Amino acid sequence: DGGITQSPKYLFRKEGQNVTLSCEQNLNHDAMYWYRQDPGQGLRLIYYSQIVNDFQKGDIAEGYSVSREKKESFPLTVTSAQKNPTAFYLCASSIDGGPGNTIYFGEGSWLTVV
Amino acid sequence: EDKVVQSPLSLVVHEGDTVTLNCSYEVTNFRSLLWYKQEKKAPTFLFMLTSSGIEKKSGRLSSILDKKELFSILNITATQTGDSAVYLCAFRGGNTGKLIFGQGTTLQVKP
């Protein structure tokens, strides 16, 4: 089945540790995105990539890093510099970055930092 | 600064009621407006609107965009308990494809 796979679904980490969230898609989409969602709030853009080996900061990139070495993969690292990392993280993709294309989401990853 | 505002933030209705969810936006380079339904996990796509006055319809759900007044509405008729979810409105501006989301409307449909 085609889709976007995020892993792990649930992750607990101690404060000060870096964690990496995986996002893989087999939709042959060029554009990929990472969003963060806090309780009772909408989604906020962390990073996005419109093509392999290229990515841009979103609205809340501080404390996060990404890579886009392969078209199908866009991992997100939550570093110890992120002040409040506990949140629901959503990966998404679209055919390309064009405004007429729908963005599809993965199932999300819950990160809890204790 | 571009922003999207949804109202109401939460809504409780009974099965069979009709609801209207609102989304207003202030953007510098509007390209499209999207509606998503989120039940616990991933948002699922409902509609994409690019032109004013053209209603998009899918079953009991419909949506329309007013580019002059800068708002969109999502209507759900004959609501069912399965419609309980967070409904997210997002606009897309510029050429990057990224979405700017509103805070969402939480809809609860009681039996």
Q: Give the termini distance of chain A in whole angstroms.
A: 35 Å
Q: What's the average pLDDT of chain A?
A: 92
Strand content of chain B: over 45%
The string of secondary-structure elements of chain B, in order, is EEEEEEEEEEE
- Main beta-sheet annotation of chain A: 7 strands, mixed
**Structure annotation, total helices of chain A:** 0
End-to-end distance of chain B, in Å?
41 Å
Largest interface: A-B, 28 and 28 residues
**Shape of chain B from CA axes?**
globular
Tell me the number of strands of chain B: 11
What's the story with the biggest beta sheet of chain B? 6 strands, mixed
Counted by DSSP, the helix tally of chain B is 0
- SSE topology string of chain A: EEEEEEEEEEE
In the predicted model, the low-confidence regions of chain A spanning at least 5 consecutive residues are none
Defining traits:
heterodimer; A: about 110 residues; mainly beta; 7-stranded mixed β-sheet; 4-stranded antiparallel β-sheet; about 0% helix; globular; B: about 110 residues; 6-stranded mixed β-sheet; 5-stranded antiparallel β-sheet
